[in-house]
Specification:
Blueprint (H helix, E strand, L loop, with lengths): L2 E7 L5 H9 L6 E7 L7 H4 L8 E5 L9 H11 L4 E4 L5 E2 L3 H11 L5 E9 L5 E5 L5 E2 L1 H9 L9 E4 H6 L12 H11 L9 E12 L11 H24 L5 H29 L3 H6 L2 H4 L3 H13 L1
Parallel strand pairs: 1-2, 1-4, 2-3, 6-10
Antiparallel strand pairs: 4-9, 5-10, 6-7, 6-9, 8-10
Helix pairs in contact: 5-7, 8-9, 9-12
Length: 314
């Protein structure tokens, strides 16, 4: 069983730590794919010394995909991969030393699934653990997994391990600008399986084996709140259509589907309100922007106005 660890890279600050975390794995059957997104920072001098290990390969894009289109670089990494299973981590994240070994054991236990998941340790810029997110059941359906997400479960992209064959057949990682929500939809599609070789479900390790670094350089720290809101609107619309299709197939309880539709809508509204508040808080003049783009948000005018005022008063 071979794992392909993908690092779509742009920043140099913590890249060596990310590489070292893969080298330190107790499971030795892995390859590491680093794709430099035509970064203005000097990434090659960081990566090249590690390439003495033949399992590590470095590539540099001729043109920069950019933060908005970062999923395209995820998929570029995927194109270079050859492993049985794929993990995509940030250039500032880390894997704990036993991560791949524990995932291999989980895959052996549930070999007919398209995606696996582990808990998360949120680390700071010094690499110190600030919190752990590891309260996970061992097995969930695709609908249970996404329902928990909408109820507040925090997850990223690096805590998921995808069957590469299924991921490729699904067209790779799902595209959304800024990758905002792309991890959720990619994991959900994989968890649905294909109805043939891979069944519906996701297996979880209730251990914090992926280390997500929270810092000011991450895309999640981007102040492009308008783009974040548009991505989340596309996300919510996609799931509304998907749940409608599943309801029409009569393979799910209609009450469960309606409950999930409500959770998804509430999740979107909560996110949208936050983005408006934060944007206006950063610059009160942005209130005029949001009032002129009410239709884009899908929210009532009074809601946009109220959140804008809260942003000013914050």
């Amino acid at each position: 069983m071979t794992f392909s660890v993908l690092i779509p890279a742009y920043k140099s600050a913590f890249l060596a730590e990310a590489l070292e975390s893969v080298i330190r794995q107790s499971w030795k059957d892995w390859e590491l794919i680093v794709v430099d997104d035509c970064s203005p920072e000097e990434l090659e001098p960081v990566v090249r010394p590690f390439c003495k290990d033949e399992r590590i390969r470095y590539y540099r894009n001729e043109r920069n995909f950019g933060a908005v289109n970062v999923v395209a670089n995820w998929n570029k990494c995927l194109e270079y991969s050859t492993g049985d299973y794929v993990i995509c981590i940030g250039d500032d994240d880390r894997l704990s030393p036993g991560c791949l070994e524990r995932l291999a054991a989980l895959i052996d236990k549930y070999p007919d699934l398209g995606v696996y998941h582990c808990g998360v340790a949120v680390i700071d810029e010094r690499g110190e653990v600030k919190e752990t997110l590891d309260n996970l059941p061992e097995l969930e359906s695709s609908l249970e997994m996404i329902g928990e997400r909408w109820k507040g479960r925090r997850q990223f992209i690096g805590d998921f391990c995808f069957n590469r064959e299924l991921l490729v057949s699904n067209g790779g990682f799902f595209y959304l600008p800024l990758a905002w929500g792309a991890d959720d939809i990619s994991a959900y599609i994989a968890a649905k399986g294909d109805g043939l070789r891979y069944g519906d479900g996701i297996a979880n390790l209730n251990e914090a084996l992926f280390q997500y670094r929270s810092n000011s350089l991450t895309i999640s720290s981007s102040s492009d709140f308008h783009q974040k809101l548009l991505s989340m609107k596309s996300y919510a619309d996609w799931f509304a259509d998907e749940l409608g299709v599943r309801a029409g197939l009569n393979t799910c309880d209609s009450e469960d589907i309606e409950r999930l539709k409500g959770l998804c809508n509430a999740f979107y509204i909560q996110q949208a309100k936050y983005y408006i508040r934060q944007d206006v808080h950063s610059d009160w003049r942005r209130m005029a922007f949001w009032l002129n783009h009410v239709k884009e948000t899908g929210l009532p005018l009074r809601t946009v106005l109220a959140q804008s005022v809260k942003g000013i008063l914050k």
